[in-house]
Amino acid sequence: MQPDPRFTKQPKHFWANVRSISQQAGYTQRGTGQIKVHSYQEMVRALGAISLTSHHIWDAANRRPTEFGETLRDYFAYRAKVLNEIVEPNLMTAESAKEAYEELRKKYPQAICPVPMNKQKGDKRAPAYLTAMVNTIVAAHAEGIPCDYDPMALTTVTLNGVPLRTLSRRVDGAFPTSVNPIAIWEIKEYYYTTTFGSRVADGVYETLLDGMELEELREHEGINVYHYLVVDAHYTWWTCGRSYLCRIIDMMHMGYVDEVIFGKEVVQRLPELVKTWVADHGLKAKP
Asked: Are 218 and 224 spatial neighbours (Cβ–Cβ below 8 Å)?
């Protein structure tokens, strides 16, 4: 999923309002579980409940929303629509992920790449399906260019052979390497978890940290590294973690991740992205 251009240039205080209102008014509708679209009245009440003003959202004298308030309303409507209608249907179970992975292996038998196993035991011990799908697709479309499918080092960007920036944490994949990568990605698959615990929540914030460091690199050094988040597991993310899905959509529009790939989207979208990386690699290789 790519961000909607209407919301990618919003100032930081726009997202402060999104977060404060969402926190206070809630992310989902009681009973239906659908993502909420906050009305102007709900926005006003939410800010008032935490002793904040709302005149920037609602013009009480003229009894109408401000332009800022209309943009907030449009964003909440957009966020709810894409999560309810696009993201939720694309999230897979362990069984459907297994089927998707097996179909990919048949489609790309020539793809040579690591197939990591999950951390489960007994009957649940199996390939880490989402990671294996990502690896397979990258290998099938990389045109022989190497890829670091499991970087064991921090991502580093250099200038004239000297480290310019080194990110704080390791990522799940880098193309072509973790030194001066064209693209990096994080994979969050939780097919067998039974609750939305702190480990899952931390995964969202880890990606946010990476995005903030890459934003600083882009703004101060003029160097861009593509940054992606790939997530799956219907029960974990939808049944238990819809508020974090909202945060992920927010994070993408804040510019901290270029795209988020949800479940089945990996099959259609990732090949297109890899072709872009290959093209960029070719441009960098030219003298």
From this structure: yes
Per-domain boundaries in the chain: 12-90, 94-285
Give DSSP secondary structure letters for the chain: -PPPTTTTT--HHHHHHHHHHHHHH-SB-TTT-PBP---HHHHHHHHHHTT---TTTEETTTTEE-HHHHHHHHHHHHHHHHIIIIIHHH---HHHHHHHHHHHHHH-TT------B-S--GGG--B-HHHHHHHHHHHHHSTT---BSS--S--EEEETTEEEEE-SS--SEEES-SBS-SEEEEEEE-TT-SS--HHHHHHHHHHHHHHHHHHHHHHHH----EEEEEEE-HIIIIIITHHHHHHHHHHHHTTS-SEEEETTHHHHHHHHHHHHHHHHHHHHH--
The model carries a pTM of 0.94
Mind listing the pLDDT tens digit for each residue in 248-271?
999 999 999 999 999 999 999 999
- Taking only the tens place, the pLDDT of each residue in 203-234 is 899 999 999 999 999 999 999 999 999 999 99
Mean of pLDDT values over 173-177: 98
pLDDT for residue 23 is more than 70: yes
DSSP 21-72: HHHHH-SB-TTT-PBP---HHHHHHHHHHTT---TTTEETTTTEE-HHHHHH
